[in-house]
Automatic annotation (TrEMBL):
Parts of the chain that traverse the membrane: 86-103, 216-236, 248-270, 276-302, 314-341
Keywords: Membrane, Transmembrane, Transmembrane helix
Descriptive protein name: DUF3667 domain-containing protein
Signal peptide location: none
InterPro entries reported for this sequence: DUF3667
Amino acid sequence: MSDGKLREDNICQNCNNTVIENYCSHCGQENTETRQPFYFLITHFIEDFIHYDSSFWHTIKNLFFKPGRITNEYLSGKRNSSVNPVKLYIFISFITFFLIAIIPTKTRVTEDNIKVNPPKEVQIDKKAEVKQSLDSLAINSVISKQQKDLINKAVENNTEISLNEVDIATIEQIEKKVDAQAPILTRFISKFKELKANNISTEQIAESIIEHSLKLIPKALFVYMPIFSFLLWLFYNKKKYWYFDHGIFTLHYFSVILLAVLTIYILTALSSYIEISFIVSILRFIAVIIGIFTIINFILALHRRYKENRFITLLKGLILIGINSFIFFTIIIGIVIYSYLHV
């Protein structure tokens, strides 16, 4: 592909073998001058881009409109016309991470949204919760009656508690006991009330959770790939198909999912800036269609790759979707809840 000026010396600079023609027969390096005119950099870049662009769009077109075909071509040895599946996934991952990082949404729930001084009624509720917890701790002998009265007095007067009066060990005991008596659901509801009390609407909370989930999906997909491939390995002929084959299928399909997630995120970001409900509804409808498309794409890819009859393909596909969705979104929900409780 290179049109760089050839060296007069026929000794390869890379491996010191004799170069008979333009390329070294031992290591494959082209025998061109190290320093080239500046225009060479530009023309070389354009040539590489056109070549990559051609194979890239060929790959993308087939991934979306002929699912499974690229996987079949790659595994049959026809690899020059498409992008290497690992490079493709890395490239799409980079684009997805980059755009999600720089595209803002209008409504965000961050620490900046939370007021430093909560409303008076919230303070009253907090005092009541503290008193109730202290009563429970005193009954269970975690703290003494004197320590309970001391903390109650401090809460009533909004003063700090001296470590000389209540030692650090006792405070740690209190924290452990309170955490043990506060299940996740209770903490989740308490956090929701806290955000609501600070004038953060339910819609803002929901949008923030959705946005956070979409940001997590690309990272979670990368970690989840081996599990997805393993489930394919369990469902299909282990003698005919290697785990490697399922890995290539997974890389191609996850590239489709990444592009779908990126598109949905962009639509979500756009809808946060648009006040016209009709247009927002259209954008959300398109996002739903994209989600459905990824499911159909998966079924079609299974049929073209593993060549089973349509009913078996549909049955296995739906079972795989169910199992993978349960495992994957359980992980996502767990991470989102953890992040939500630590906003």
